[in-house]
Amino acid sequence: MGHVGFLSFPFFLPRSRRFPFPKHRPSPRLQIWPSHQSQLKHQPCFGPMAAMSDDPIREWILTEGKATQITRISPIGGGCVSHASRYDTDSARRNYSKLQKREREFRNHQFLTMLLLLKIGPSMFEGEALGLNAMYATKSIRVPKPYKVGPLPTGGSYIIMEFIKFGSSRGSQSVLGQKLAEMHKAGKSEKGFGFDVDNTIGSTPQINSWSSDWIEFFAEHRLGYQLKLALDQYGDSIIHEKGQRLVKNMRPLFEGVVIEPCLLHGDLWSGNIGRDENGDPVILDPACYYGHNEAEFGMSWCAGFGGSFYNSYFEVMPKQPGFENRRDLYKLYHYLNHYNLFGSGYRSSALSIINDYLYMLKA
């Protein structure tokens, strides 16, 4: 029996599309909480089916997906913006699809509505699919191959991608570091720093306009964007003023560094990292762009990277001078984003990093 369709895992799920989480979960990820387990059991696909013209997901499965029958639909998880489920079919293909729906609750033979959902069009999933395809093309670390993105006739959008069955092993940190470095080494851009489309980091827009200068790109489209958002959203003039001083004075941190535009996953934390049945690393749910490879470690504060990870990574991508002095700079982008997404619980961490850099740079 093949498996096609909507799937979500407790290990890796759509950013900004997860249940509210306790403070020790520092990122906007969908999580399967115990109170929802009763909703997540496999459900056979019985009952009347919608006409294929009204159901683009089913239409794709039964045409381009090479299936003749959907035998089971298995809702796995849900969140504040989307939910995901697995479809079993009579084909040998395995795919995974996520669904974004309108701001209303409804239930039919395919979908399990868990929360009121935001009105989000296909652009979010289009950005995700482009990122997955770019990572897939490097032939380095395993990622789910996307197949189809489109709008739903009822509103919202969907993405269909390869289903990867996860193994029980935690896998090797050393292999993860090596494979990630191989992706950074293989994925280069002649256009400079940025990406072909804007995408999202959580539910926050991530601007990816191309730039030939990494420091300017990071200053304007990463730190600068988040600092302005904090000012607009919270009126936080202290974070904004001090952060702007850092942005204007951070160039010395990059002296003697050769910076190439490497393909980044962009949101690499433990919830977006898994292992397949062979124990090989899998990364998903990206916020891709081409940037300084060190920026990939900006979410390391909740990724659990250990010494073996970094040792293997730097064997492929050698450590640049001043690496340790830049680590918190890249963490700052994600702390600011979490502040803007979730509020004051992350403000002190962001401000502490800013203050430390202002002292270091005598700014």
TrEMBL record:
<dbReference type="GO" id="GO:0102193">
    <property type="term" value="F:protein-ribulosamine 3-kinase activity"/>
</dbReference>
<protein>
    <recommendedName>
        <fullName>protein-ribulosamine 3-kinase</fullName>
        <ecNumber>2.7.1.172</ecNumber>
    </recommendedName>
</protein>
<dbReference type="Pfam" id="PF03881">
    <property type="entry name" value="Fructosamin_kin"/>
</dbReference>
<dbReference type="InterPro" id="IPR016477">
    <property type="entry name" value="Fructo-/Ketosamine-3-kinase"/>
</dbReference>
<dbReference type="InterPro" id="IPR011009">
    <property type="entry name" value="Kinase-like_dom_sf"/>
</dbReference>
